[in-house]
């Protein structure tokens, strides 16, 4: 064999030194983010998620812009509607919980406009009394909205558990809702138009927040009047049902009905047949427009609460108090010396959702 040539009959064995590191793919999340220990690098830049093994990663805030649907693990479905679902999801890196609202876009034009409206409001709203929106995505024919997770569910869920809510807790709940309405009405110029127990969410920290802006109206004019007919008719103000112009005080009517329902355990407008409920929508609408407004019984409730409800449910919106006026109502401060603890109340008396063992890892952001 000549020098430098290879014998074709000799089989060569090639061996590579064992790799010092495992496959590079191990360090990539599904969204294409490089992750090694506490270091995360993606197209948005570098992020250190924790300083030590024992220190929890910092919570994600809406301004971080680092959320990806691929980095969410689905835990369970917590809500269903005609056009989509709401899922409880957990972020893979921070273990933070979120509510993921997924809406299929193969729906009628009015519903698409409502979703567009909700996205506009979510994008611009930053208030501790309004459910926080983190990011929205369009993927595979669906809009996905990542929202703050309120682990106590809705006030409607809570009411099913407790049946009625005592006045001291109602005053504390009402104060937070009014602050949310103050923000919507005076800072964002928004009429919610669908305020009801299922659109008020609570959590284990004792927070109450307004959600679901799919039918809200953004007022462009200084008069603050609208005339469209959308929302849930049960809590709709008389002027809206009549088809006339309405303003921010239509939300105050709804608030009054919500509080009265929470206090008594019953929807304020009783149907003719109490055992059957309202079977005819038009009968209910007629009752709201033509019957005297509901009231709180002075035999069962404080004069301050009765007065507050009356201030909310005046038939003529001109006689109704606005959110900033109601904040100064005596009922708001009636029980301040009791130091009402909504956190304990929601956690101990609420729905099973609030006892989710991992809820303590939800951020306080």
TrEMBL record:
EC numbers: 2.7.12.2
Residue runs in coiled coils: none
Ranges of residues in domain Protein kinase: 72-332
Gene Ontology BP terms: response to other organism
GO molecular function: ATP binding; MAP kinase kinase activity; protein serine/threonine kinase activity
Binding site for ATP: 101
Keywords from the named record: ATP-binding, Kinase, Nucleotide-binding, Serine/threonine-protein kinase, Transferase
Enzyme type, top EC level: transferase
GO cellular component assignments: cytoplasm
Reactions accelerated catalytically: L-threonyl-[protein] + ATP = O-phospho-L-threonyl-[protein] + ADP + H(+); L-tyrosyl-[protein] + ATP = O-phospho-L-tyrosyl-[protein] + ADP + H(+); L-seryl-[protein] + ATP = O-phospho-L-seryl-[protein] + ADP + H(+)
Superkingdom per UniProt: Eukaryota
Family: Belongs to the protein kinase superfamily. STE Ser/Thr protein kinase family. MAP kinase kinase subfamily.
Protein name per UniProt: mitogen-activated protein kinase kinase
Organism: Populus trichocarpa
